[in-house]
Amino acid sequence: MLGPTRVAPGCLDARLYSDIDRRKTLLLVEDWDSREQFECNLDAAKLNAIVAAIELSSEAPVVRIDTVERREGMDVLALCQGITLGIQ
Questions:
Q1: What is the DSSP secondary-structure string of 6-27?
Q2: How far is CA 29 from CA 4, 13, 78, 80, 83, in A?
Q3: Which residue has the higher pLDDT, 74 or 40?
Q4: Separation of alpha carbons 41 and 6, rounded Å
């Protein structure tokens, strides 16, 4: 599932994480350029794979889609550091 997702138009990154302490815990993270590109890539095969994994789960899964409205970089950290240290 990761390979085709990573090469899909608009995909910035796709990763699957497993918790070392809780081996049955998986985290799928996809980073998309836009919501529209994410939705275009969410086809039946991908949904079926996700649903199959959920059905095998012994616990109720947490499914969450986060939307980032704005991205900022180091300049924001520098500004916050200046505020917390009283530097202007």
A1: HTSTTEEEEEEEE-SSSTT-EE
A2: 14, 8, 28, 28, 33
A3: 40
A4: 10
Q: What percent of the chain has pLDDT over 70?
A: 91
Nearest to 63 by CA among 50, 76, 49, 80: 50
pTM (2 d.p.):
0.69
Contacts (Cβ under 8 Å, ≥6 apart) of 10: 32, 33, 34, 36, 37, 38, 40, 41
Q: Where are the beta strands (DSSP E) in 1-88?
A: 11-18, 26-32
Q: Which two tokens stand for residue 45?
A: 């095969």
